[in-house]
Amino acid sequence: GFFKAGQTPVLGNVRATDPSNVTAIVCSDNLNGLASGALVGAVTGTASQSLSLSGDGIHRIRCSATDGAGNSGAGPGSTDTAIVKIDTTPPRVTASLVPVGEVDEKEGRFRVSFQCSDARDLNLKSTAEINGVTVTNGQIVELKLERETQGGEWEHRVLTIEAPSFLLTATCTDQSGNVSVATARPIFGRDHDRYRDRDHDRRDFDR
């Protein structure tokens, strides 16, 4: 698996032993995200060094040691390489409630729209809800502004939610466990019939 946001830098330790004493330990990282601490136990039979790794990607760590006779490398039976995967970047997520047809001041139909993307992960998990009611991408919902909340009722095969306000919340999670959230609120329009009547009244008055 991957180390995710909040789990970095990834800390580790490398140890070397040699009857001729260990004089140095050198480790490298293909992504240049490795920082090495001071050698502990230098010029003794066992020495160690702390490691700190950061940066997104698949890191390939390789270490070697030098003994008192000047021999460098890794002896038989050594574990001198390691693979460490890091992904601290959360997915990108967008969300919106797109008006469908005419939407007046207090009610209207909207299409739920949300999208997740991640440069490193194509297997994203996504969920969405409006006021706690689960919805899906592309779903048409009817929202009615009312003082009392009534959610999750189906009318003519359309999910209808009544509430004083509405909030679409879309959540995306990548395989590493990084989470992103986007929210959106519906934009209600004016009452077209009422304003049309006012326009007629003004024209009649002007006459």
Summarize the structure in short.
The chain is mostly beta strands and 207 residues long. It has one helix and 15 strands.
Shape: rod-shaped
Q: Structural class of the helix and strand makeup?
A: mainly beta
Radius of gyration: 31 Å
Average of the residue pLDDT scores: 90
Stretches with pLDDT under 50, minimum 5 residues = 191-207
**Please, how many helices?**
1
Which oligomeric form is depicted? single chain
Measure the end-to-end span: 77 Å
From N to C, what is the helix and strand string?
EEEEEEEEEEEEEEEH
Biggest pleated sheet: 6 strands, antiparallel
Helix content percent band: under 10%
Total strands: the figure is 15
* Proportion of residues in β-strands: over 45%
Structural description of this entry:
- This protein has 207 residues and is mainly β.
- It is built from 1 helix and 15 strands, in the order βββββββββββββββα.
- The strands form 3 sheets. Strands 1, 2, 3, 4, 5 and 6 form a 6-stranded antiparallel sheet that branches. A 5-stranded mixed sheet has the order 7-8-11-13-12, with no helix packed on it. It has a 4-stranded antiparallel sheet with strand order 10-9-14-15, with no helix packed on it.
- A hairpin with a 4-residue loop joins strand 4 and strand 5.
- The longest helix is centred in the last third of the chain and has 15 residues, at 192-206.
- The protein starts with 9 loop residues before the first strand and ends with a helix.
